[in-house]
Amino acid sequence: EDGEAVVSTQSTGIDSCVLGEDSTFLQQSSEMTGGTYVRVTDHNKLAQYLLSVFLMGAEFRKSFNTPPAAKVDFRAACQCHSKMTDVGYVCSVCMSVYCTFRPMCMTCNAHFKLPTALFKAKKVTGKRKLEALNGKT
């Protein structure tokens, strides 16, 4: 659902001013929509950031010296642990990402089956192995 909201706002841009820990979701949203992401570490400078970065329109920000954009991590966070993952399993119904296979999606309750070929791996040795390598069955 959150991803759908980001896609629908790509023409407007999402600006994010974060006071606590970094937010991967807000970083990705701001980057994808051409908005600005700023994490304020010194709360005494909050007014300065709000006035100098967020008050002016997006078309004028390019003309001013605004804080540089941080490198954005576009990996997906798994639903089960909320940790970033390079490779995972994606629910074909709701697009939730999981770091390990789950027979049922925790988000939309869709049910999945693993192909039985993964469980029935045969050990091929000797003459049959040579035939398999040469393309014969």
Reconstruct the topology from this structure.
Layout: H1 2-8, E1 16-18, H2 24-33, E2 37-39, H3 46-54, H4 58-61, E3 76-77, E4 84-85, E5 89-90, E6 97-98, H5 126-133
Parallel strand pairs: 1-2
Antiparallel strand pairs: 3-4, 5-6
Descriptive notes:
The chain is an alpha+beta fold and about 140 residues long. It has helices at about 1-10, 25-35, 45-55, 60, 125-135; strands at about 15-20, 35-40, 75, 85, 90, 95-100. It has a two-stranded parallel ribbon with strand order 1-2. The chain is elongated, with a radius of gyration of 23 Å. The N and C termini lie far apart (about 50 Å).
Mean pLDDT score: 76
Helix run count: 5
The main β sheet shows up as:
2 strands, parallel
Overall SS class:
alpha+beta
The proportion of strand residues reads 5-15%
